[in-house]
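User: ok so my PI wants both of these folded by tonight, can you help

Assistant: No problem, let's get them done. Here's the first:
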Amino acid sequence: MDTHRTRALIVLILACIFLAACQQQSSNLPETGQTQCYNYWGLQVNCVSSSQDGQYQEGVDWPEPRFTVISCNESGPCSNTRIDCDSNPSTDAVLDNLTGLMWARDGNLPGAGLQWESALLYIDITTNSLQQSVCGYTDWRLPNLHELESLIHFGFNEEDCAGEPCASLAGWLEQSGFQNIELSLYWTSTAHINMLLSGTGIYMDMRNGDTLSNNMPPPCHTPSLYLLPVREAGSEYPGPYPAPPWVTGQQLCYEIGNIIDCEGTGQDGESQVGQPLPEPRFTDNGDGTIHDKLSGLTWLADPNCIGTNYPNAAPGPYGAGMFSWPDALAMVEAINNGDYPECSLGHDDWRMPNVLELNSLLYHQKEGNLLSLPPGHPFDVWNETDYWSSTSDAFNQDNAWRVNVQVGRIFPVDKDEEQAFLWLVRIE
């Protein structure tokens, strides 16, 4: 082989190695699904120069169709999975072509709500099968928080449900192939972040995807809620799937505030399913920014840069650097215009992160009052807990999604009346 061909081959090999490394460093965060923009009154506005989620629509595109119904009987998939061979939707499954997760089609298999402990045991741990057969599979489980959150369409109101805009997340899921999704709360297998104080699991509201937990002491500590079993698609449906969820980080299991042996609990701490987190996850760029290898995003190292460097720009009633949502969006524009150089750091493409980008920073294993951020994170977080996202609430468009890094929760609040901090992000 001549010298020129050898050099060319070496360059090609090095390029492939570099590209592979880049691909390994970037997780496929999906887009939120929101394509429209709204002001603080909840009225739709032009997305151009709005700095909202609907303008950028960052993330992996959803496949079309997003979901595929797998028609089954009790023993397994029908010979033609497009035709329900037993005319019984409760034995069917739904494949998410975005994540590679397979869900029970029926959103109320038990026929009623269950307490968290009962919901975990509804899936028989000894045989790993539901107490009633769904498509013949024996590896169903209660979804962890990231898995259930992967079903959220943050722009469901933009979709058509029987000739009208979808009124809820539950309505959109049913329009997409699920059945009997209750307009109510659904359990995850992930324990509440302050489990030693509360003793319950995290649950999600099928109206809009709001995640909640119950801090009530026993015997009121665990309400009766619904469940939606999940499993991984397996080799019979190999994909590829562009955005599989990552692990929540939870490694312990609990019972009424006590740490217990995980074996046989069905809790998130036992299964620990999901894509692994990069190790190390964060890179300090040495210029006031941090690169996240999970998402491929670059964050300001100081999540309250304005409050730290320009406290008079946003004095706030609860601390410097807090804004209403419209004021936070206006501040992003000012930073990109160079008005606050200690925060722009020579860049003009900073933006407010969408709700999934902020949510990707949460880590669901901690005790006491520590922050719900990954161990050893390099961010300068002190007393700041609530951060705005650029994503509006599809259920009530005069609200926007906010992330609390203390309890590890995403939830919508009023855009104009509530205040939160501004954590800037960009893509290299």
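One down. Here's the second:
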Amino acid sequence: MKITEIECVPISLPLKGQPGRLNDLLMIKIHTDEGITGIGDGGLVNQDIVTMMVKSWAPVLIGADPLDTGKIMSRLSGAIHAIWGMSYPAAVASVDYALWDLKGKALNQPVYQLLGGKQVEKLRFNYFLSGGDTADRVKRAEEAVAGGVKSLGLKATGFGGGGISTETDLANVKAVREAVGYDVELSIDYNASLDYWTALRFGQQVEEYDLFKYEQPVAWYDIDGLANLRKKLNIPICSHESTVLVTGLVDVIKKDAVDILGTKLSSAGGLTAGVQWAKIAKTTNLGMYCGGMNGLWEAAAQAHWLCSEAEFGLQSQASFFPVSLYGTFDTTQPTDIDIVNNPMKYKDGYFWPPEGPGLGLELNEQALPKYITQGKSTITIGEKERAEGRFFG
């Protein structure tokens, strides 16, 4: 089997859970001479940059055997952590997911089976609340819990723009905790935005609210800061930006810096890189956590990966894009968003990997045209691009 053609399809999905917002994704469709097609997306990306990068990989991809996933990804891995050139792990992940989807379809197996089998039947999701004032966050938290959500996360002020106010963040934590009670998990994520002393002071102030996760309070490179916070606070410290890649993961483990090790599968470079990440992380006996990048096939790939390692079942995971897309905490209900024929299952605070060959999602080809990003069109990469291209990697 050989790869004959790759389509880069720019799509924009309306989020029913966030009216007025569109999520721009780049769907990668890898076609073969045997008529099997693999599909992937790396989540929220710059469509033009990812298209450009995939086109530059034509000499590696066109004509290759798509079942040689490891061989192909070793060639593309330079774009995960380039010393020179462009690093864009989500671009690599977009191709990686499509290759795994294709491999599963070729072997008539779900991807989780190719990863060693399903060790976790369902996974608890950590639903994040961002934006809005305290009253608004409380309202949304109560709605989520009423919808079956068992784990909540708060994005700190400043996320997505604006100033940081730890006073407001403290008020948010207090109000949400009082509203939902102590049977619901609660966490806060600062996305590496605090200096050490502010992070320490805030951590001391929220200890009484029984947070299950204080996520990346300091800069990604401040591993010593994470380690010191862990020693001084009675809250589980979670690294995320610090441990997205294997290199950072190893550094954090060596310094005994956190209680929970975090990554994002697309930011790590995809499933192939994720397998390596998980093998290292699970040796520590620490919590293992994954955040999402707001893609449909990305969410499916995450679910397959997460359910293949028992350790992920012990920790709630921030993989909830379909909840935002369909605007419901129960995606088994009918929906008018028809980009796929079989939405991923989210219900009662849990999610499940899609069943069926590959990543398990069935693209609705008839509905696809209405989701194409306005002003853009599908770019097709084939033999011409392979012959004319020059791969640097």
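The chain has two domains: 3-108+364-388, 113-351. Residues 113-351 form a domain with the TIM Barrel fold (CATH 3.20.20.120). Good luck tonight!
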